[in-house]
Amino acid sequence: LKGFISKSDDEWRKGNWTSGCVRRTKLSCQANSSMTTQGKDTDVFYRMTNAKTPDLHQVASFLSAKQCYEGCLGNCSCTAFAYISGIGCLVWNGRLVDTVQFMSNGETLSIRLASSELASGSSRTKIIVGITASLSILAILVSAAVMFLRYRAKHIEPTPTVIDTLQDAWKNDFQPQDISGVNFFDMHTLRTATNNFSASNKLGQGGFGPVYKGKLLDGKEIAVKRLASSSDQGTMEFLNEITLISKLQHRNLVRLLGYCIEGEEKLLIYEFMVNKSLDIFLFDSTLKFELDWPKRFDIIQGIARGLLYLHRDS
């Protein structure tokens, strides 16, 4: 997001975004230690189009977009505003939680930034254009190479000896750290954690295999999904799927902690959810009374946000 940087570069490199972002440049009104803007270096607003507006907004009584802008600019605690036809002026004070930019069909969100963030951007723009052009050419070359290799794979059938040699080479060359940000678990660790996949630790049965509760040596609880051996998914397809899943980071989605490949075994390790599956509460004659309508409404909203993230941003 323009004007913001990661709060912890180390966490972001590991795929952990929970700490969020901080401003790159302090706001002018904050530097003046006043609730209203002062002096020549007033703050400016960056217009972010096609945005999913942040949570926890307030409705202001301003009757036009100009009044909405002036009201937010004059209040140092106002970090962003949006004037939406039919709704009015929405303002945000403090952190901008769960802000997302879609490809289309979003709102225009004006985010408060220091004036220096939008000044003298021509040189930066030239650099960005140059980098973008270079990456575009590289992407075209890589795509052409992939298409060529796929064509060769379809039209040149390898002999069984070649296949065995390739599989042996893959096993020798494979390194657990080949997938960035995802932990590799060995089968011995998972057997110990789940008591050798004991039936007493079984949490449920899905379409792709059973799920077991496990406990690592450091005391951390995990959920282990043991994929059915009848699956015809290849090893490389499985690794590609792990790479895609590991990039999904949302507070309403269960986080992938790692994976395991040993022989024909393929397993996924997720964070353990203490309350188990939602259907246990919905259909249990006793537990269902713990879900009053406010809780159910929050659950519905969380599911909707997770689905929206998967369909639009993943």
From TrEMBL:
Key words of the record: ATP-binding, Kinase, Lectin, Membrane, Nucleotide-binding, Receptor, Serine/threonine-protein kinase, Transferase, Transmembrane, Transmembrane helix
Signal peptide coordinates: none
Pfam families assigned: PAN_2, PK_Tyr_Ser-Thr
Ranges of residues in domain Protein kinase: 197-314
Keyword Membrane appears in the UniProt entry: yes
UniProt KW Chaperone keyword: no
Start and end residues of each Apple domain: 29-115
A GO cellular component annotation in the UniProt record: plasma membrane
Record-level Gene Ontology MF annotations: ATP binding; carbohydrate binding; protein serine/threonine kinase activity; protein tyrosine kinase activity
Protein name as annotated: G-type lectin S-receptor-like serine/threonine-protein kinase SD1-29
Organism: Noccaea caerulescens
Alphabetical list of SMART domains matching this protein: PAN_AP, TyrKc
Annotated transmembrane regions: 127-149
